[in-house]
Batch of 3 targets.
Target 1
Amino acid sequence: MSLRISEHTACRAIEPSLRNIPKGLRCPAQGFLPWVSTATTIPNPEGVAYLRSNSSQVRFPTSQTNMTVAQQPPIELGQTIRNDFPILSVIARGKPLVYLDNAATSQKPLAVIEALDEYWTEANANVHRGVHFLSERATERFETARETVRRFVNAGDTNEIIFTKGCTEGINLVSTGLQRHSAGLSARSTKGNADPNSPLPKINPGDVILVSAMEHHSNLVPWQMLAQQTGAIVKPIPITEVGEIDLEAYAQLLRDNRVKVVAIVHISNSIGTINPVKQILAMAHKAGAITLVDGAQAGPHWLVDVQDLDADFYTLSCHKIYAPTGIGVLYGKRHLLEALPAYQGGGSMVRTVSFQETSYAEIPAKFEPGTPNIAGVVGLGAAIEYLESLSEALPFVRMVRAGEGEGVGDAGSGSRQKLQNTMHAIHQHELLLANRATQLLSEIPGVNLIGTAAEKAGIVSFTINGVHPHDIGSILDGEGIAIRAGHHCCMPLMTRYSIPATARASFALYNTLEEADALAAGVRKVKEMFT
C-alpha cells in the first residue's frame, strides 16, 4: 500500500530531511511528492500536523492543518498513474505524445487491456446460451460487469442496466420505443396494443420535445426523427453567452408548451458546461414530461447517481470511461423499460416464438438481441473497477492536528464511497489542468475562449483570430499534441456562437500540468506562424 500526496504536500512544505525519501521519489519544479512507501519511516514530532494513511505519516506546517484533502485536487495525479496507460509512451511526430482529445475517446489502462486478454484467452464463448464451462465463465463475467455498472451509476436494480453500442444507440432505443408506443404497439409482443395505463407518454402532433442548444447531434437527431414520425415539435432550450442553460427561458418553455420529453446533456462535450441536471429534471417532471440525460461526458469525470438525479433514462458512452469502443449503457427506470416496446428483434430477446406471434423476454434481455459485445462489457467492468481501486492510492484522508485523536480520516466504507472519492479527486485534478490551460490561453492575444460557464469540466474550447481550428489542430499535431478541431457534432451550438468550429482540448485523469503548459506553448507557436 502506498500513500499519494496532495497538492498541499508540496516539497517546499516538507522538511528538507524528508525530500530524500527512497524508492526513486522525485520533487520537480512544481513541488510535489508523488509516492511514499509505507516501509519508509517518516518522523512525526509531537505537535506537528500530519497526513496519515494506514501507518504512513507525512509532516506539514501547522498552518495547513484541518484541511480535507479529498476536497483538494491531487497535484500531478497524472504523473503518478501514467504508467498504467501504455499508449502514453508513444512518440507522436517525433515528440512525446500529449493526448488532449479525451472527450472523443479515452486511453485504456493496463487493467482493461489485461482483462480483455484474459477474456479472449480463458473465457471466450457466447453468453446466456451455453451449458458448457466456457459459456458459464463468459456469462459470469458479463453479468458481474452489469452489477459493477449498476454500482457505478447507483441504479436500484441490476435489470435497469442495458448494454448498448454507446450513447447514440441508447438514445435511439428510447426515441424509437416512444415512437412505437405512440403508434400503439405492444411492449410485450408482436401482437396487441400499447397498454392504455402505460407510464410512457403518447407523443401526438403538436407535442413538444425539448433539447438544449448545446446538445451533441446524438441527442438531437433521434428526437427530430421521433418528431417527424409523430408530428411533434423539437424546440431548443436557449443557453446564455457563457454557455449555461437559460433556466428562466426553460421554465417558460415548460409553461407555454405541451412538453412530453426533455432530453439534456449532463456535461457538454463541446464547451464543458456542467448542467444543473437535477434541477432541470425536477422541473420537467413537474410539467409531466419524461426525461433522458446524455451522460457521455459525465461518466468519466463526474459521480453519476441516477437515483439522486431522478433520471428516467441515462446513457453512458463507455469508451470515454477507459473501456473499449463499441460499448455503452442505457439506464432506465424499471417500470419505464418494461413499458417500452422492443428496439430490435432477434435471438436472446424473446420468450416464445411462432409464426403467429413472438413474445418478448423480460428486461434487460428484451433490449439486448443477438450476440453482445461481450469483451467490451468485460472491459467496461474492469475499467470501473480500476477507477474504484484508485481510492486505495489517492489522498482520501484528512489532515488533522496531532494529539486530537481523530485517527485516519475515513472516507467511508463500501465501493460506492470509494468511487465517490475517486471521481471527486479526478474532477478536481482535471479542473486544475483546465484552469491552468484557460489562464495561459487567455494571456495570448487573439485567442477567444468559447464557453466560460461557472460550473465546468476539464474541457477548453477556443478559437484564434484569423486561424481556422483545423489549422490549429494540424500545427499542434506536429508538436505531438492531440486535440480535436471541428464542430464536435454540435453544429447548432456553433451557430449559437456564430463560428464554424473550435479547437478543443479535453483533459483526463492521466494528463499533467506540463501537458497543459505544452498546449499553451503550442498555441503560441500557431499564433506566431500566422502573424
Target 2
Amino acid sequence: MLIYIDGFRLLRVETDRYIEKIVLKNNTVTYLKTEGNSEFFSLTEDINLHYDDHVYVDGEICPLNIGVVTLTEEFNSKFYSKEELGAIYTKESTSFRFFGPTIKEAFVIIDEIYYQMSYCNDGTYYVSINGDFAGAKYYYYIRLLDCFKRVIDPYAKGVLNGTSYIVDDSRLIKETRLDKKDKKPYLYETSVKDITSTLKIENEGTFLGLLEKDKDIHGNVLDYIKNLGMTHVEFLPVFGFYGIDELDKSRLYNWGYNPIHYFSLTSHYSSSVTDPVTGINEFISSINYAHSIGLGVILDVVFNHVYSRNIFSYDEFVPGYFFRHDIYNKPTNGSLCGNEIETSRKMVRKFIVDNIKYFLKTFGVDGFRFDLLGLIDIKTMEEVVSSVKEINKNAIIIGEGWNIPNTVKEEDKAIIKNHDRLKNVYFFNDLFRNSLRGINDSNEDGLLTKHSYHKLEGLRKSFYEYLGNQSVYYVSCHDNKTLFDRLKISENVIVKDLENYVMTALGLVSFSPGISFYNSGSENLRTKFGIENSYNCLGTVNNIYLNPKSETTKFLKSLISLSKKYNLNSFDMTLNYDEKFDFYELNYDKKGETKLKIVFKNSNSPSLLFYKQAKILSSNKIFTLPDNDKYTYFFGNVGIYIFY
C-alpha cells in the first residue's frame, strides 16, 4: 500500500483492499471516491508538507509520499521566495538557502561537519554559519520522507567531479563590460573544445586555449574571429554537462547539451579539476580579452530539458516541480531528450532568471542563445529580457523559436509566430535557411542549387515579412550536416562548384538585413564527413580547421567588410529572377535608386547584366567598371556577385 499527497487537502491511496479509517494528526480524513486501484480521501485542513510525513491506516503507520501536489497551481501560488539561493560567501560567514517546501529536515554538510537548517515560510531552508569557508566542500543532507539523502546544491557555483565547492568571490578576476551596440551583429558560433583542438598550442580544448597564440592564424582564435569581421563569438554550452570524463578529457566527447549543473562551469574546459575558481577565472580572462579587441561573447543556454531528472538535484528537493507534465500528470518530452522543464512555475522561472543574471554579472557576457526557445513560455522570456537589459542594455538574445508540440498553449509559447510579443528577442530564420539551402532532414534542394518559384517566394518572404526585423539569418549551425556536407548531397551540384555554392550562401547571410550567423569553420569549407548529429563523436569529426590565408576565408572577410558599410535595414529590398539569363538579383534601393545589387547564380549558364558604373566583389577580387552610361557585364559561373 502506498499513500500520496496529491493536493493540500487530497490523499491518494494505491491499494487492493478496503480501507476503514485514516488518521492524520490535527486533521480529519474523509473518504471521497475510488478510481481503479486508487482510493481518494479529502482533508478538512491543509496538510503541512514540510512536517506531515506519516498517517495511520487502519492502525498501521504508513509514510506519506509526495504525489502530484507539487504539480498543482495551488502549490505554485503558495510557495515563492525572493531570497538569494545557494551558498553566499563572505570571509566572516557563509549562508545557505534552498527551495524545498516538501523537505522534512535539512542539514548542510561542510567538510563533513553537519549544520542544521531551519524552515522558512517561503518554502526555503536556511542557515548562516560563522567562519571562513572559502574553497570548502559542501552538500545538503535532506529528508523527504523516512530517510536522508545527500544532494548537490542546484545553485552551486563550483562543481568538480560530482563535488560542490564554496566559491570565494574575492578571488575572482573583475569582469569587463563591452559598451557597444552594433547596427548589424555578425555572430560566429563555436565550441571551446572544437576550435582550439587543431591549434599548435599547449592548452587545446580549454578556456586557456582561447588565449594562446598560434602563428598560423596570426594570434589566438579570438583574434581570428575578430579579424574575420565578426562582432560576437557564441560559445556552445560551458556549464556543467553530462557525457564527459573530467579526469580523462580524451576519453569522451560531448557538445554540452546535457545540463546537470547550470551555475557551475564544466571543468572539461578548465586547467584544474580541484579548484573551481581556476576555471572561472580562465573563462573571465578569455571574455575580458575578447572585450579588449571589441568582440562580444554570447553563451548557449539550455532551459528546455536536463540530461536526466534522476540525477538533476532540484528534483530531490521538490519532486516533479521542475518538470512539465500533461493533463494526466505524466512527464512530457517535447525536447525529445527524456524530459521538459516547466518554465512557467514561479521558482523554475526564478532559477532561469537567476542563472542568466549570474553569468551577466560574474562573466560580463554580451548575450544568450536559447536552445529550443519554443519550449519556454513567453512570460518567462519577458522576465529574462527585462533582467538582461537592466544589466546590459546592448545584450543580444537569440533563440530557436520552433513550435514543438507540447502542453503549453500556442499563444503562450516563445515561438516565431509570437515574435512580435518579444521585441528584444531574435529568432533563427528557418524559412531563409530552408528556401536557400533546403530542409535539414531531406535531400530536397533549395534555391541555392535548383530553381523553384516556391523557394523563390519563400526567400522573398524570409526578408522582413516572416520575422520583421527580428531575424537571425543562417544556413548552418552546430546541428545537422555542415553547409558543405549538406550541399554536397545535392544531385544538382558539381563537386568543383561546391566552394562557390558555399560562398554564395555565406554571402547572402552576410548581406541579410538582420543578425548574420555563421557556423565556425564554414568559411574554410568545414566538413563533418556527412555526419548528421556529431554531438558525441570522438576523434577529429568536430574539429574546426582555421586558415586565414584560404581564398574562401578571405572572401568571407571581404563580404562582411563590405556589408558593414551599409545600414541594410534602411533600404527597400527586392528579389527578382531573370528567366532569360538564369540569375537572381537582390536590389537594395533608397529613394528609388539602387545603391547595392547582389546577383547570385546556381548554374554555369552564360548571363548578361546591364548596369551602370560600379565596383564588383567576386571571388575575393574587386573590379571597377568603365564610366559608361550602361555596361554589359558577362558572367557564367555559379557564385555571388556584388555591385556597389
Target 3
Amino acid sequence: MSGQQDNSAPASSSVTHEEVTVLEVDAVDISYDDRFLYAACKDKYVRVWSKGDWQLVAELGETNSEPLAVHVDKNHVCTTCERRVYMWRKGTWELLGWFELSYHALTSALHGDCFYIGTREGRLLSIKRDTNETSSWPLHKSEITVLWSNGSVICSGTKKEAPVVWTRDPNTAPIKVIVLDKRNRCTAITGNSQFVMVGLTAGDVKLWDRVGWNHVRTLESQTDAPLVSMWANDLYLVTSSTAGFLTIWDLMKDVQLGHIRKNGVKYGRVAADHDLIYVASSEGLVVVGISLEGQALDLCEADNQIQDESPPVVEEVLEPAEVVPTAALREIPEEGVHVLRGCAAVGGRFEYKVKVRNDTPSVITNATVTILSYPDDCMEISGLAVKTIKRIGPAEFRSPQFTFIPTKDCVEGRILTTVSYIDHQDKPHTLQVKPYKIRSVCDLLEPLESTMQQFELIIGDMEHTSERHVLDWNPDILFSKAKAFLPSRNFHIVEASGNTIRGVFTGTIRGLAEGKYTGKKVAVRMLISGPAEGNKATVVVEGLGEDIAMLPTTIDEIARGIESWTCINCGAALELDEVSQIKAGAPVRCRYCEHTMTIDLYRR
C-alpha cells in the first residue's frame, strides 16, 4: 500500500491524505526524532525504523512486561513498563539499565530531566534523571490513566475523577491549581504554550487557558467518537478515536481542517511529524502523508520544541538575539518583544528557527521574520524566506522554521535575519537579530569503509593540514575516547592502534569519510602521545582531503569534540558544573547510566 492514495474512506474537502506505509506491529505508543520512528509494542519490544525508507533498524527488548509508553531524547530511548523503566543508548542500541518502580505504572511523560509516571495506585512518581532521585505523591484516589506535562505544569486524570492541573518546582511536591471539567469524563490530555486540552468521550476537545485557567472554547467533533489520543503544538491539534477517525484542527483559526477515516479500523496513539501523521491502529502502525490544497501540510512549522528540547546544534542554540532599534522608531523596552534563534543539523539539512516571544501586556500583530542573507554559495533555502505570524498574545511565542539544503559538503557562513511587528498602538518596530554563524562538515559526511592499504592509496595526493593540542588527560584514556568519538562524526575507523614503550604511550587513529553531495573524500589521522601514567597528552589532528576548503572545519569539529568532557562509561556529555566538580575532586554520577566518575578515571 506504500505510496498509493488511500481511498478506503473520504477525507475532508480541505485535507487530503496518502497512506505512505503500514508497519505490521501491534503498537501501544509512538515517538520519533529527526532520523527514526519508535514504537512500544505489545510483544515486549521497542522497535526502531529509519524514516524515509521505513526499514527496521533495531528491536530493543525483551522487556519484563508489555511496554506502556516510549520516549526519546537526544541520546537515549526510554520505555515505561508496569514495574520498570528501561533505557537504551541511541545509535548502538545497547541496554544501559532500568529503574525498578515501587508502584504499578500506567502512563508516563518525559520533559527535560524529569520523568513523570502515573500509577495504578493514584500516585505520581517523579524520577530526576540527573540524580536518579525518585519521589512519589498521592494525587488521586483511583488509577492515573492520562498524564501530560511541560515541566512547570502537570495535568493528570483518571477514569473516575476529573483532570487536575498541578504546578511544582524541582524540589517541591505538586500543588493543586484547578480541577478541569467536573461534568465530563476525560479520555485524553495534551497541551501547548497557551492551553491545556482535554479530550472527551463525545469526541469534543475543551481548551483551558493556562494563564487564568478559564474554559476558553470547545472544539466540537463531527464524529461523536471517543478520543483516545491527542497531539498538539501552538498551531495544530491532531486527535484520534477508537472509531478510526483522525481529525486535524487549526488552533490559530479555531477551525477543523478535516478528518480522515479508515473503515473497520480502530485508532490508538497518534503523533505528527511535519507532513506525516503516525497512528497506532488495529492493522498496524500507519504512516499517513497530509496535504492541504495540494501542498504538503507542515504541522510542525511553529512547534515549540526549540524551547523544550536541546537538538543537535551546529554551533549554538537559542542565544539571545541582539536587539537594535531601527532608526526613527522608538526604543523597545526591556520587557518587550524578544528574539532568540537556533539551528540544528537534521538529516542532511539545516533547520533554522527564530523564536519571537511577546513579553508585553498587549497583543502584537504581523510579526514578520525575514531571512536577509545566507551563504548561498553552499546552500539554498527551501520555501519562502519570509514568514508572517498574524498575532502573538501576551506571554506567548511563535517559532517559524526555515529549511536550508546544503549544495556543498562544507557549509560556512552567516544567516542574517530581521523581525518586524506592529504593537497595540499600531506602531511598527524592527529588531535586528544577531547573525547566526553556521559552520559544518562532519554532519554532511558519510563513513567510507576501507582497508589500510586502500587508505594509504587514497590519501596519497590529498591536500592536508594539522593542529596540535595539549590536554589535561591521560593519553591512554584520551585514545579510547577519540576512538569512540570519531564514528559519531561519520568517519569509518580504518585503524586504531596504541602501545606503551618505556613509559610513553603512543596511539594512532585513522578515519575515512566522503561528502554526501560531491563525493569528495576526507581523511583524518590522529596521533596521541604522552607519559603512560601521566595526566598530559599531546594530540595532533591531521586532516586530509580532496577539497582543502573542508579541512579547517573538519579539524576544528574533531578537536573540539576530543577536548569535551564525557562520561567514561556511556559517552554522555557532561554539564559544565559537573566538569568543575570532577576537576575539584568531587565524585559525579552520570545522569544516564548512573556510573560514578572521579578525576582518577580521567587521569592516572
